[in-house]
Amino acid sequence: MAFPPKTLDSQISEMLSVAQGYTGPSVADLPLAQARVAYGTRYRERGITPTRRVPVEALELPTPAGPLNARLYRGEPGGALALYFHGGGFMLGDLDAYDAQSHHLTASSGVSLLNIDYRLAPEHPFPAASDDVLAAWRALTATPADYGIDPARIAVGGDSAGGNLTAALMHDIATGGLPMPKAQVLIYPAVDAAMKSRSMQALRDAYVLPADRVEWYMQQYLPQGQDRSDPRVAPVNSDRLGDQPQALIIHAGHDPLWDDGTLHAKALADAGVPVTLLPYPGQVHAFLSARRALPEAQHATSAICDWLRARL
């Protein structure tokens, strides 16, 4: 495939044409509290109203930093579960923003979903979020019966920054000799923090997520002087890829993180891990959040549900 792709999907192109008339501040220009409200509002407005809502339980998972809020969306009986980490550049996003998506994924796949409210930067810089997701994994696998789940039927997944946290968790699990999930789902994951990939250079002015926005997120997330090659920051550099579970990776052609998905898929495959790579060349970063308007977002969401159902 030629790179970068020359043609945007027609539906997303129409949406972006409307958005170009917006003259207000970007998320990076807003005060943090307002940026978080704006992110959540936009995410909910672009999503899809689930046709069926599922039972939801509010939980607190024990962690060394204190209780971690979470929501468990109950799927079909049997104990299959997907632990999910939301996106938002390590700074934005919360349980409310992803509520409709969580209902939809659970109802469509039959797999229960646990969405956790990990700590956000800049108040809680790296490694706070990674520590939280690792603590959540330890809590789940230590006492799975407490949550009504089958420890042999657990997947982990996330989008964007949540994809990074998913991949970093796989490294931490392998390094720590902990029980490994059966599958992982990475949705336009940020797994290489070097900012030097082909797509990061070619798509530096991309719609939705330009390269300077990625760098801004990283600067808020990482402490000064942090080594960006650390596999907990850039999990594509993990030396434990071969110990990881089968993976589904989704990426978008008009996204600076396109090569992150490509490189991680190759690294896992080279290490002997079965990988399903689903490219959407005509789409932009975060296109799954526009399921209400985009057929390809609906297709990708269905693909995730089908993949999880088949493997769990």
Please, could you describe this protein's structure?
The protein has helices at 10-19, 32-46, 99-109, 128-142, 161-176, 198-202, 211-221, 258-270, 295-311; strands at residues 56-61, 68-73, 81-85, 112-116, 154-159, 183-187, 246-254, 275-284. The protein has 312 residues and is of the alpha/beta class. The longest helix is centred in the last third of the chain and has 17 residues, at 295-311.
The overall average pLDDT, rounded, is 92
The secondary-structure element order is HHEEEHEHEHEHHEHEH
Global Rg:
18 Å
Structural class: alpha/beta
The spatial strand order of the largest sheet comes to 1-2-4-3-5-6-7-8
Beta-strand content estimate: 15-25%
State the end-to-end distance. Answer: 32 Å
Contiguous runs where pLDDT drops below 50 for at least 5 residues: 18-23
Specify the number of helices. Answer: 9
Give the tally of β-strands. 8
Largest sheet: 8 strands, mixed
Helix content: 25-40%
Overall, the morphology is globular
